[in-house]
Design goal:
Elements (H helix, E strand, L loop, with lengths): L8 E3 L2 E3 L6 E6 L4 E7 L3 H19 L3 H17 L1 H12 L3 H22 L7 E4 L3 E9 L2 E5 L5 H14 L3 E5 L6 H13 L6 E3 L4 H10 L5 E5 L2 H11 L5 E5 L5 E4 L5 H13 L11 E5 L3 H14 L18 H16 L3 E4 L19 E4 L6 H4 L6 E7 L2 H9 L3 E2 L1 E5 L3 H10 L4 E4 L14 E2 L2 E2 L4 H7 L1 E9 L1
Parallel strand pairs: 7-8, 7-10, 8-9, 10-11, 12-13, 12-18, 13-16, 15-16, 18-19
Antiparallel strand pairs: 1-2, 3-4, 5-6, 6-22, 11-21, 14-15, 17-20
Length: 483
């Protein structure tokens, strides 16, 4: 298995070029150079994929859960056996450190497939007994052809997070990875072929969102859309899909609070706060970019975070010594830097970072930025209210529990929150009042795949994960039998 120079679509069980014959460049963030070419797919390619999926649906939906379990498990095994190849492709595409690709992204991808392969074996329907009259039971049946569109920050991790439950439930899928990070989706297609996935069950169409992505969203025979990405894109998807009465799962942006009380386990907290601030260059929707610190420990925390941040090594993504690799693209780096400049205008003080890293040699044209810590901003300023999605955090002191809950909830987003305290009563009180879909107490990014995942407010609609995902990708039908 290898990453080819010309990526192909995966339609009806075969790797095929786009019908138009048009490609665009795939650029490595580490050096700014073109290293492969991506199909510039359009409506015609999507139609071809939908036709294949519709043709495959009858057989796949009646395949039986044990056969689906075996095939999905086989795909997971192939990914695990080729971990090095997948990890190299992920790092080349995204600029993230190879250590993260090897220990987080690719292991989670094959874990997703194994989890849902197993979960469908235990997915049970409900029954309701009407004494002396009837019994009702619920059939949960696959929807048909569904669309899965995933982002660039955790490419294969989130691609499989959507595809695995859809396939396990008996649907056929037309999927589009991000045009910025397509290579591991291409390798996934090869794994599916090797595993013997029947033709048309999974179809992967590469290309730009406004062309290929929009064609998936608006296709009348695609009955559900699962999307992860920016809030503005999610809004456009909803505008198209809602009048067509499609099922929608939208996992969107975040501007997550990290709330640190003075009674926290400081050493444990500072270690995880460094992770939640700068993992994957802050390009994780769950990163805690707004850090609120109780005043008695504010200065101690600030000084320690700055010291540790300055020790982080920004550099070659393929070096095992690298903590932060390259940002995903030139335009994204420019966006992040524009927010650092905005923070200065809004009265913030840059405590560390805030500047591009000038690399040498082959990496000279890569997209590198020093992790940035800012203090002194008004809590309601744009820097504190808008999603930056980069290695940038802001520090704000607080005095009372009520005050910090108000600060945490004042943004338009509500994806996740982190709370650090040894007071169990406070932990419960604060968790209950935070407007977020996920609240971590004394930890960060500790994920159980059985739990529901998603946000409130502008962070999305619906839930992924566990039985929630299997429910999304099925339609419930009540059957009432009178006797």
């Amino acid at each position: 298995m290898k990453a080819d120079k010309y990526i192909k679509n995966y339609i009806n069980g075969a790797l095929v070029p786009p019908l138009s014959g048009e490609y665009f460049d795939n650029i490595s963030p580490a050096n700014g150079e073109v290293y492969s070419h991506i199909p510039d797919s359009d409506q015609a390619d999507v139609q071809q994929a939908v036709d294949a999926a519709q043709k495959a649906f009858k057989e796949w939906s009646s395949f039986g859960v044990e056969k689906r379990f075996r095939i999905l498990s086989r795909i997971a095994d192939i990914i695990e056996q080729n971990l090095e190849t997948f990890a190299m492709a992920e790092t080349t595409d995204s600029g993230k450190p190879i250590s993260m690709s090897k220990t987080v992204d690719i292991p989670r991808a094959h874990a997703n497939l194994r989890f849902f392969a197993t979960a469908i074996m235990h997915f049970a329907s409900e029954s309701h007994f009407m004494e002396g009259h009837a019994i009702n039971f619920t059939l949960r049946q696959p929807i048909g052809v569904v669309g899965c569109i995933s982002p660039w920050n955790l490419p294969l991790y989130l691609f499989t997070w959507k595809i695995a439950p859809a396939l396990a439930a008996g649907n056929c899928v037309v999927a589009k990875p991000s045009e910025i990070t397509p290579m591991t989706a291409y390798l996934l297609a090869k794994a599916c072929m090797e595993a013997g996935l029947p033709p048309g069950v999974l179809n992967i169409v590469h290309g730009y969102g406004p062309k290929a992505g929009q064609a998936i969203v608006e296709h009348p025979n695609i009955k559900a859309i699962s999307f992860t990405g920016g809030t503005s894109t999610g809004r456009e998807i909803a505008r198209t899909a809602a009048p067509m009465f499609k099922k929608l799962s939208l996992e969107l942006g975040g501007k997550n609070p990290n709330i640190i009380f003075a009674d926290c386990d400081f050493d444990r907290m500072i270690f995880d706060t460094l992770r939640s601030s700068f993992s994957n260059n802050g390009q994780i929707c769950l990163c805690g970019s707004r850090i609120f610190v109780e005043k008695p420990i504010y200065e101690k925390f600030r000084d320690e975070l700055v010291k540790r941040t300055q020790f982080l090594k920004v550099g070659d993504p393929f070096s095992p010594m690298t903590d932060l690799g390259a940002l995903v693209s030139r335009s994204h780096k420019e966006k992040v830097m524009s927010y650092i400049e905005l923070a200065k205008v809004e009265g913030g003080t840059i405590l560390c970072g805030g500047k591009a890293v000038e690399m040498q040699g082959q990496l000279a044209n890569g997209y590198y930025l020093r992790p940035t810590v800012i203090e002194g901003l008004e809590v309601g300023c744009r820097t504190n209210m808008e999603e930056i999605f980069g290695p940038v955090v802001t520090l704000t002191p607080f005095e009372t529990e009520e005050e910090v809950i108000q600060y945490a909830n004042m943004v338009d987003y509500g994806l996740s929150a982190t709370v650090w305290t040894q007071d169990i009563s406070r932990a419960h009180r604060v968790a209950e009042q935070l407007q977020a879909g996920v609240v971590w107490i004394n930890c960060w990014l500790l994920r159980d795949l059985r739990t529901p995942f998603g946000g409130v407010k502008n962070s999305g609609v619906g839930r992924e994960g566990g039985l929630e995902a299997l429910r999304f990708f099925t339609e419930p039908k009540n059957v009432c039998i009178k006797y």
